[in-house]
Design goal:
The chain is of the alpha/beta class. It is built from 14 helices and 10 strands. Strands 1-2-3-4-6-8-9-10 form an 8-stranded parallel β-sheet. The chain has a two-stranded antiparallel ribbon with strand order 5-7.
Length: 422
C-alpha cells in the first residue's frame, strides 16, 4: 500500500472506532510508547560470546534448527538488532544475558563478571537511546551440568552461582545508572530432578537461602528492578522443578521483588492472562515473557493468537502498566532469525495496539449496569473493528515497513548481510 492509501484507510477506520467511543490517536500513542524488551538470544541461538564455539550444555534449554546466517560476533549481533529495530514500530528495549559480555578474548568465569564487560553494550545502547535489561546465565557451564545451581547440595558450587547472580545485579545496576531508567534484572535457574526426589524441601530451602544471600545487597530502585522466574518443568527436570511458580510467587510477595511469568512456563490449560490480576495485588510488579508455547515451553516465534491477545488485553484492562514490564522470549533457528525476531516483536506490538483500541468505556458501562448482553455484544463487535488499518498507520508514522514490504526487507538483509556468514 502507498502512504496516501494507508492514511485514507486509517481515517475511515478512525471514524468507525469513534462510533464506539475509541480515540485511535490515543491508542496509537499508547501502543507506540509501551516499552517492549527485545531478547538478544534470538540472534545467535543462546550461544553468547563467553568463549569461542559456545554451545548449550545443561539447564533444560534447546534451540531447534541451523538456518544460515547466525550472528558469530558482537558486531554481527548488534547489526542484526539494529535491523530488527528498524522493522518494529514503537519503543524498544534490549535484554542481554550475562554470556553476551565482551571479554576481550580472556577467560572470565561467571563469578568474575564486571560491569566493564558490558561497557561496550552500554555505550552502543546509549547512542541509540536504547534501554537495557539483564539476565544472569545459570546454564551452559560445567558447574550447571548436574542440573543444580542455587539449590546445589555442594556449598562451593552453590556459592559460585550466588556470586554470579550478585555480580549480574551489579552489571544491571550499572546499566540502569547509565540509561536513567531501571534495568530489569531477571533470574531464572534450571534446578530440578528428572525423576522422583525425597528432598523437595531441602532443595527449596537452599534456594530461598541462596536468593536471600543474593538480594541482601540493596541496590538503588532507580537503577535496578529485580525479578524471579518460575517454571513448570524443564528438560531433564520433568519430575521436580525447585523454582516453580508457587515458590516464586511466595518469594516475590514476601521479599518484594518482581514476579516473572513466561507464557510457556505453565500447564497448557492454565491462563497467564488470568494470573496477572491474581498476583498484582501482592507483588511489586510483574515481568511478562511473551512467547508461544505450542507444546508447553517450546518457545515458538510469537504470532497473533488467542493467548497473546488475552494477555495484552488483560494488561491494558488492569490499568497497572506502571507495574508491568514486557519482554520477548523465544528462539527459532529453523527459519531466518531476523524474520523470526521481527515477526514476534511486531505481533506483540500489534496485540497491545488492539488492546488499546478496545471500546473499554462502553464495555465497562454495560458491565457496571448489569447489562450482560450488551457487554458480550460489545466484546464480539469489537472483533470486527478495523484494527489492521490502525496498525498500518502506526507502522507508517514510525517508519516501520508494512505488509509485504516487511518480508522484502528481511529477504534483502538476508542476501546482503547474512549470506556472507555461511
Amino acid at each position: 500500500m502507498k502512504a496516501n492509501e494507508i492514511e485514507q484507510t486509517y481515517r475511515l477506520a478512525a471514524q468507525r472506532y469513534a462510533e464506539f467511543g475509541v480515540d485511535t490517536e490515543a491508542a496509537i500513542a499508547a501502543a507506540a510508547s509501551l516499552p517492549l524488551s527485545l531478547h538478544c538470544w534470538q540472534g545467535d541461538d543462546v550461544g553468547g560470546f563467553e568463549r569461542a564455539g559456545a554451545s548449550l550444555e545443561g539447564g533444560g534449554i534447546q534451540v531447534t534448527g541451523n538456518f544460515p546466517g547466525k550472528a558469530r560476533t558482537v558486531e554481527e549481533l548488534r547489526a542484526d538488532i539494529d535491523k530488527v529495530r528498524s522493522l518494529v514500530p514503537g519503543t524498544l528495549r534490549l535484554s542481554l544475558h550475562a554470556i553476551y559480555g565482551e571479554f576481550g578474548g580472556k577467560a572470565v568465569d561467571r563469578d568474575a563478571l564486571e560491569p566493564t564487560h558490558f561497557a561496550g553494550w552500554i555505550a552502543w545502547a546509549k547512542q541509540r537511546k536504547l534501554a537495557l535489561d539483564f539476565n544472569a546465565t545459570l546454564f551452559s557451564h560445567p558447574l550447571a551440568s548436574s542440573g543444580w545451581t542455587l539449590c546445589h547440595p555442594d556449598p562451593g558450587v552453590r556459592n559460585f552461582w550466588i556470586e554470579h547472580v550478585r555480580r549480574a545485579r551489579k552489571v544491571a545496576a550499572a546499566m540502569g545508572a547509565a540509561q536513567a531508567s531501571p534495568c530489569v534484572n531477571n533470574t531464572w535457574i534450571p534446578d530440578g530432578s528428572k525423576d522422583k526426589t525425597a528432598a523437595r524441601s531441602a532443595y527449596r530451602n537452599r534456594l530461598a537461602d541462596s536468593l536471600d544471600a543474593i538480594f541482601d545487597e540493596k541496590l538503588p530502585a532507580s537503577q535496578i528492578e529485580d525479578a524471579v522466574e518460575g517454571k513448570l518443568f524443564g528438560i531433564g527436570a520433568e519430575y521436580f522443578t525447585a523454582g516453580s511458580h508457587d515458590f516464586y510467587l511466595g518469594y516475590a510477595a514476601t521479599r518484594r521483588v518482581f514476579l516473572t511469568m513466561d507464557m510457556g512456563h505453565f500447564h497448557p490449560t492454565e491462563s497467564v492472562a488470568d494470573k496477572i490480576s491474581a498476583v498484582l495485588p501482592f507483588v511489586p510488579g510483574v515481568l511478562l515473557h511473551l512467547s508461544r508455547p505450542v507444546r508447553w515451553d517450546s518457545d515458538h516465534v510469537l504470532i497473533s493468537g488467542d493467548e497473546l491477545s488475552e494477555v495484552a488485553f488483560e494488561v491494558v484492562r488492569s490499568r497497572s502498566l506502571n507495574k508491568i514490564r514486557l519482554g520477548l522470549d523465544y528462539f527459532d533457528a529453523s527459519i531466518n532469525r531476523i524474520g523470526a525476531w521481527a515477526i514476534g516483536a511486531r505481533s506483540a506490538r500489534k496485540a497491545f495496539l488492539s488492546a488499546f483500541l478496545e471500546p473499554a468505556a462502553l464495555i465497562a458501562r454495560a458491565e457496571e449496569s448489569g447489562d450482560g448482553f450488551g457487554r458480550l455484544a460489545l466484546f464480539e463487535e469489537a472483533q470486527g473493528l478495523p484494527s489492521g488499518a490502525v496498525w498500518n498507520e502506526l507502522c507508517r508514522r514510525t517508519g516501520a515497513p508494512i505488509a509485504r514490504d516487511f518480508i522484502g526487507e528481511v529477504d534483502s538483509y538476508a542476501q546482503s548481510a547474512l549470506a556472507a556468514r555461511g
